[in-house]
Amino acid sequence: MQLSDVNMHIAAALLGCGTDPGPMDAEQAHAAMQLHLDCTVDECRVRRRARNTLVDAGHCVLEQRAIR
User: What's the CA gap between 29 and 20, in Å, rounded?
Assistant: First the structure.
């Protein structure tokens, strides 16, 4: 999915690390993970939400050391 395919509300929320973008689907979460590639889940609320979305959907399996 290209970022341009994401609706404007989600796209605006994905730009800032400090704002939780709210619920997203797996495609939006994948786009968010790519957009915030250099961020950590500890610092970036968008990446944290995206990772949790992908884990919940079964698209991502975390190593034991990443689970808190």
Answer: 12
* Interatomic CA distance for residues 42 and 16, integer angstroms: 14
pTM, whole model, 2 decimals?
0.77
Write out 10-68 in H/E/C secondary structure.
HHHHHHCCCCCCCCCCHHHHHHHHHHCCCCCCCCCHHHHHHHHHHHHCCCCCCCHHHCC
* In the predicted structure, residue 65 carries a pLDDT above the cut 80: no
46 in Cβ contact with 19 (< 8 Å): yes
For residue 29 the two structure tokens come to 């979460």
